[in-house]
Amino acid sequence: MRALVMTAPGGSENSLVREVEEPAPGPGQVSVEVAYAGLNFVDVMARRGDAGYVTAWPYLPGKEVSGTVRALGAGVTGLAVGDQVVAAPAGGGLAEVVVAEAALTVPVPAGVALSRAAAVPLGLATAMLLLTESGRFAAGETVLVHSAGGGIGRGIAELVPQLGGGRLIGTVGRPEKAAAAVEAGYDAAFARDEKLAEAVREAAGGRGVDLVLDPLGTEALELDLELLAPGGRVVLFGNAGGGEVTPLPPAARLLGGNLGITGFSHRGLTVGAPEKVARAVARVLALLAEGRLDVPVTELPGLSAAPAAHDLLAAGRGEGKYVVAVAG
User: Fold this and answer.
1) Angle at alpha carbon of residue 109, lines to 78 and 269, rounded to 5°
2) The pLDDT value given to residue 211
3) How many CB atoms lie under 10 A from the CB of residue 142?
4) Rg of the chain taking only CA atoms, in angstroms
5) What is the mean pLDDT of the chain?
6) Within a 13 Å sphere around the CA of 37, how many CA atoms are in the beta-carbon half?
7) FRET label pair with 109: which of 4, 217, 232, 242, CA 20 to 30 Å apart?
8) What is the pLDDT of residue 328?
9) How far is it, in rounded angstroms, from Cα 266 to Cα 284?
10) Cα–Cα distance between 158 and 144 in angstroms, integer?
């Protein structure tokens, strides 16, 4: 079968489409004929060799797919060959066939296009879990989202109205991306420059923000804490810049402001609490099936188009969510 293979740490020069052996499902697993595979920044972090993302090279990227069940491993119930599903594999999703845990494989409801469904297992499920599981979002709260123009940022803009609504403020790495974030549903969006703190305070009505969703490592943590309202929370869910993660602030500062800092890892949940991920996936798919949620995606024509899209994500020039049409 054909698969995208990352041969060594680096850039797109080390991402090649190759013939590899088709995987077979083990106990508790299914294999899926991939129709569409979602692209995510985690692929970029793996490609550049960030610690903890790749255990050995060559590496097969891809952590969310939609398609059709091809085979069942021993002990799998509730799924059948031929079912249309989405799945969150540990890797290898940018391929014609991938193996995933059955616990992380969810049927696609009727009426949901597989191209849209491919954006759910990692992208939109992460947005849902950030808001509900880690961020404890309550209707009417003000939320600050860094990297608002990316796939997760767009997903948060789609989901907040479905969770009761609130005020959404976004930050972007490039000033020209601010307008697109507002078009996607943010009440205001600003470039991350020296005027950011003042701009966010004004957009928040002078009272601070209730929840910050931050994929920038600890690069912006001081700013996040400065902008929080009493009782506010920060959720750290990545290290997009790849820089050194600095120590967290002393407890006295958090206690004095009734502030919270929480870490989030989609990968950690898939290993330790897969049922939480599956519930989030099913919840988002139901919203899609009911027509209450829209998922704009940019469809890429085949595996060979993925490295260039990864380059866009790495350079901060990606717009929204990319999915690769693998089948056909």
Assistant:
1) 65
2) 98
3) 22
4) 19
5) 95
6) 32
7) 4
8) 62
9) 15
10) 14
